[in-house]
Structure formats: C-alpha cells, structure tokens
Design goal:
two-stranded antiparallel sheet; single chain; 6 helices; 5 strands; three-stranded antiparallel β-sheet; alpha+beta
Length: about 170
C-alpha cells in the first residue's frame, strides 16, 4: 500500500492496485512451482529426521523414535511459520518468494495472518478434498483464483516489474 496526502491534509492509504506497477495474474505453472518448493522444504526436514532416526536405530530405538518425533515437530513448526505467519505478514511463502509471486487480497490490500491461515489450513485441504479440482479452477478463472483463493478472498499476483524484458 502507498500513502498519499489528501486535499484535507490526511494521509490516505491506497491499495497496491493503484500503484504504478501493474498487477499481473500469476501463471498456473509458477504457482505449481511455488507449492512444490514449499513441499520440498517440509519433505527434506522429514527425510533428514528419518535418516537420523535410521542411523540411530538398532539398539537405540528410543533415540531413533525421538529424532523422528523432533523431525515431525520441526516440520509442523515450519509449515505453520511458512504458510501462516510468513504468508500473513509478507504475502510470501518460501516458494512464492522464490518464484516471484505474492498473495494479496482481491482488493489489493495486504494479506493478514488470519486470512493466510484460512487460505492455507482450510482452503488447501478443501482444494485437495475435491481431488485437485479446487487447484485446477485457477486455470479457468479470469483472475486465476483457485478454490482456496475464493474461500479466503485472495489472489496470487506478480508485479510487472518482475517479468522478463523483451517478451
């Protein structure tokens, strides 16, 4: 959001859509790449903890089981921080940051933590429960909104400034 002085001397907050940089609909392939990066982050934590548990296995079953438990707890913490807190405060997850995408409200305002939790922890499971149709809706929607975006009133965008020149 930007702040500009109005005729009455008060500062007005304008949504991002009013800024000079045009908002572009995020391509479905980039959205898939962002989700894949987020998934790889969590899967690597689980794989590493499982590897450590297997190395500690044998006679140290409690050490192996506790390292798997610690790995699960760390993975859950990373999921909550990445999909809830980070997305709610910045509009990015690690995957969206890596692909140059941002989640924001449909009116251009910044995402908040509550809406990020609604989008990721209610909307994603519902999109999965429809056997992936909830995700595929984004390819046919004029704004590129999937089911979880419709539930949380969000849209995934990228700035025109981040697109390659000459295309």
């Amino acid at each position: 959001m930007t702040t500009e002085a109005s005729a009455f001397g008060r500062a007005e907050v304008k949504p991002r859509s009013v800024r000079k940089h045009e908002r572009l609909r995020a391509p479905f392939s980039l959205r898939c790449g962002a989700v894949l990066i987020d998934y790889i982050l969590v899967a690597s934590i689980l794989a590493f903890s499982t590897l450590i548990a297997r190395m500690l296995g044998g006679g140290a079953r409690t050490a192996g089981a506790s390292s798997e438990t610690v790995g699960l707890l760390i993975a859950l913490i990373v999921i909550v921080l990445n999909l809830g807190v980070l997305a709610g405060t910045t509009g990015f997850t690690v995957g969206k940051w890596a692909t140059g995408l941002r989640v924001e409200r449909t009116n251009g305002l910044r995402l908040n933590i509550g809406r990020a939790f609604l989008r990721h922890f209610v909307g994603y499971p519902l999109s999965l429960a429809t056997l992936g149709v909830g995700f595929a809706i984004a390819t046919f929607s004029s704004r590129g909104q999937a089911l979880h975006d419709l539930i949380a009133d969000t849209v995934v965008v990228r700035d025109a400034i981040s697109t390659p020149r000459g295309r």
